[in-house]
């Protein structure tokens, strides 16, 4: 079993308007995932430095940063970052260009964790549905040009309020998991955060992580899923 999680951390700013990266890391420890996709990790202006120092991540969690950033002060790309267990092996990491009206992007990594080979894609999609459709098509097209034998899992803040809508672009090959309402954390009504699996992955359990900390640490609640790789490489 592999546990994956996705969390839009709102630049580590909580509902109390305090930037507290320590809370984010404590929440990640509560979830205890093997792979984490984070959104809104870096500041959007200036040097776009990370709001969670990598030294803090490595000191206070059992996770390490997938080296995806192009800036020395960042841990992500367009705010997206991937964290994996320290004993996981990162085979390759990628940055994916997608159609944008506002700063957006997608990232991926092929990893070996718990003996399973897995491709993880993290992304944060646009507010406008027409752009979300284009972005999903772009990510699918780019990942399908890679080794298709590797089970692929896509997760992040998809910004889609409806069960269908832009999500229809994933087609029949992908299974969409909607663990539950994750936005707004003070009163969750929208399932903006989702996990999408290919046919070689089996979803055992998916949930929204509710805790005293997660209700104030960001405007989103984190989601997670326990998965099983059906065909190991």
Characterization of the model:
- The protein is an alpha+beta fold.
- It has one domain (2-229): Deoxyribonuclease I, Chain A.
- The chain is built from four helices and twelve strands, in the order βαβαβββββαββββαβ.
- The strands form two sheets. It has a six-stranded mixed sheet with strand order 3-4-2-1-12-11, covered by helices on one side. Strands 5-6-7-8-10-9 form a six-stranded mixed sheet, with helices on one face.
- It is globular.
- The model has no long low-confidence stretch (mean pLDDT 94).
List keywords for this structure.
233 residues; alpha+beta; Deoxyribonuclease I, Chain A; 6-stranded mixed beta sheet; 12 strands
List the helices and strands and how they pair.
Blueprint: E1 2-8, H1 21-31, E2 35-39, H2 54-60, E3 63-65, E4 81-85, E5 89-96, E6 106-113, E7 116-124, H3 129-144, E8 152-157, E9 175-177, E10 193-197, E11 201-208, H4 214-217, E12 223-229
Parallel strand pairs: 1-2, 7-8
Antiparallel strand pairs: 1-12, 2-4, 3-4, 5-6, 6-7, 8-10, 9-10, 11-12
Provide a brief overview of the structure:
With 233 residues, the protein is of the alpha+beta class.
Shape: globular
- Could you say what the CATH architecture is? 4-Layer Sandwich
Output mean pLDDT. 94
CATH class: Alpha Beta
* Secondary-structure element string: EHEHEEEEEHEEEEHE
| Content-based structural category | alpha+beta
Helix content: 10-25%
Integer count of domains: 1
For the largest sheet, list the strands in their spatial order. 3-4-2-1-12-11
Give the tally of β-strands. Answer: 12
CATH superfamily: Endonuclease/exonuclease/phosphatase
Summarize the main sheet: 6 strands, mixed
Strand content: 25-35%
Topology-level CATH name: Deoxyribonuclease I, Chain A
Distance between the termini: 15 Å
Radius of gyration: 16 Å
As residue ranges, the low-confidence spans are none
The number of helical elements comes to 4
């Amino acid at each position: 079993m592999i546990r994956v999680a996705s969390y839009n951390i709102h630049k580590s700013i909580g509902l109390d308007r305090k930037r507290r990266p320590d809370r984010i890391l404590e929440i990640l420890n509560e979830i205890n995932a093997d792979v984490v996709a984070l959104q809104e990790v870096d500041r959007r202006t200036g040097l776009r430095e990370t709001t969670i120092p990598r030294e803090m991540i490595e000191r206070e969690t059992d996770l390490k940063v997938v080296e995806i950033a192009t800036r020395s002060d960042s841990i992500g790309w367009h705010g997206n970052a991937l964290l994996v267990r320290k004993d996981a092996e990162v085979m390759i990491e990628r940055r994916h260009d997608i159609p944008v009206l506002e700063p957006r992007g997608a990232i991926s990594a092929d990893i070996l964790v718990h003996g399973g080979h897995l491709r993880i894609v993290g992304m944060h999609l646009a507010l406008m549905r027409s752009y979300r459709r284009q972005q999903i098509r772009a990510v699918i097209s780019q990942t399908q040009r890679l080794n298709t034998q590797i089970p692929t899992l896509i997760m992040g803040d998809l910004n889609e309020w409806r069960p269908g809508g832009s999500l229809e672009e994933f087609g029949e090959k992908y299974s969409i998991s909607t663990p539950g309402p994750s936005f707004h954390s003070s009163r969750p009504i929208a399932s903006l955060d989702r996990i999408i699996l290919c046919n070689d992955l089996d979803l055992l359990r998916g949930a929204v992580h509710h805790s005293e900390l997660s209700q104030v640490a960001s405007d989103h609640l984190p989601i997670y899923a326990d998965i099983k790789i059906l065909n190991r490489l």
